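Ligand-bound model needed. zinc ion.
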Amino acid sequence: MNWFSGGLGLWQNNYMDVVLTGTGSPLPDPNRAGPSTLIKVDDCHVLVDAGRGVVMRMAGAGSLPLFLSAVLITHLHSDHICDLNDVITTHWIMSQGNAVLSIYGPPGTEEFVNRQIHALEADISYRIEHHQELTDGPQVQVVELAPGEHFTIGEVFVRTEATEHAPVKPTLGYRIEHNELSVALVGDTVPCNGVDELARDVDAYVQTVIRSDLVGLSPNSMMLDILDYHSDVQQAAQTAERVNAKRLLLTHMVPAPNKEQYSEWVSEARKHFRGEIVIGDDLTTVSLQRTP
Ligand SMILES: [Zn+2]
Ligand SMILES: [Zn+2]
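Prediction:
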């Protein structure tokens, strides 16, 4: 059964919405924003990664940077962080400088954020000069994490583990839990122990995927390079089955499928996973609900 969208109101505290705010990849696509996923539990909104177009898609998902309790970054590949500057600036302006944006990520995240803010120095000075309400630049708190750490953000509990996306190091995946509901968001990675730990028995396992059978046909050697550091659809499905995930959500699909090809992708995953398989356009929403 699909639990697509909606579950607010009556299910307060018993639901967790997983919104695929960006299902694209580094390859530009007019219909797919860059990788990001939004988790919503009541007023607690947590954004995982901040790819191309993320703020537009957040608006489409009924959220805004101002509403974020935190941003979690899986790794510092540009497709996952290239619009973090928009999240920071929009949060700063819409809060009139009064709110702190919390950003969690692997070592290197703080330097990246500081450099983003430096890159925006001219804009920041113009706005401070123009708006009486703004007395300082963006208020950002960055927490760099090590594998195995856990913490709470508002209503949700978060665990992190190392993933494998070499030569990109370090990389982190996350498990977010609330009221016996859980989702694993592991970013770009090949199957590994960290992914298994995070996705064990989850309600939703979100995996960035490629089709190795199609990518492998490419004459472009740079495309072939991506084969060795992503999960392909079959590997993601094998992981989902191995760890007893209830649902597998495919995102960051390479090559991006059109609607007519979704069933083919699901069939590839179905060979290895008996649970629910979700593939879709940007803003595909899975509303996890705890049985009362
Ligand atoms: Zn990556
Ligand atoms: Zn990526």
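The longest helix spans residues 84-94.
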